[in-house]
Amino acid sequence: MLHHLSSRRNYPFVKVNCSAIPLGLLESELFGHERGAFTGAVAQRLGRFEAANKGTLFLDEIGDIPQELQPKLLRVLQEHEFERLGSTQTIRTNVRLIAATHRNLSQMVEEGKFRADLFYRVNVFPMTVPPLRERREDIPLLMSHFVHLFAATDEQTDRSDPRGSNGTCGDLSMARKHS
Fold it and tell me: Is the pLDDT reported for residue 176 higher than 60?
């Protein structure tokens, strides 16, 4: 929503789930690599910072970024530049960063598990969303949203397959009954 209502809406919105990418590949995923930079790097690959240039980069689970990669992330946020793995050429980028985590980053800073200077760079406009268990009044609204979303998807699926063409349950009567 932040991206779509901003002046960057005509540029890319790139998402990265930092906890879903193996630690050894996260640097390459974020900053890209040159051919031959490591075993298996058979071609040049653009990183997510490069792909999101002029747009928005969403780093989900930023608290899972390893400490050895945090200085490189800090550099791109401060200096707006980085190098691909295996390259000496500096690449400039202009990216709005949105970060999310389930971890307590300020506690991680105190424990020495997250860089304080990086924390202050990503904690510019913090938003805390309480867990759903603490806001049960939102459940009917969320159910209604997802019922309508999946009902629209269901209308576009093949009716001869009871699961629908996308492999989801084609019968939403149970969900509709509870909305």
Answer: no
pTM: 0.76
Helix (H, G, I), strand (E, B) or coil at 14: strand
**DSSP state letters, 37-99:** SSTT--S-EE-HHHHTTTSEEEEETGGGS-TTTHHHHHHHHHHSEEE-BT---EEE---EEEE
The first and second tokens of residue 141, run together, are 């609204």
Encoded tokens for 72: 């490189």
In whole angstroms, give the CA distance from residue 164 to residue 179.
Answer: 21
Q: Strands 96-100, 56-60: parallel, antiparallel or unpaired by DSSP? A: parallel
| DSSP 8-class letter at 85 | B
The radius of gyration computed from the CA coordinates of the chain, to the nearest angstrom, equals 20
Cβ-based neighbour number of residue 39 at 10 Å = 6
Distance in angstroms (rounded) separating the CA atoms of residues 121 and 97? 10
Look at residue 130 in the predicted model and tell me its pLDDT: 87
Question: Predicted confidence band at 156 (pLDDT cuts at 50, 70, 90)?
Answer: low
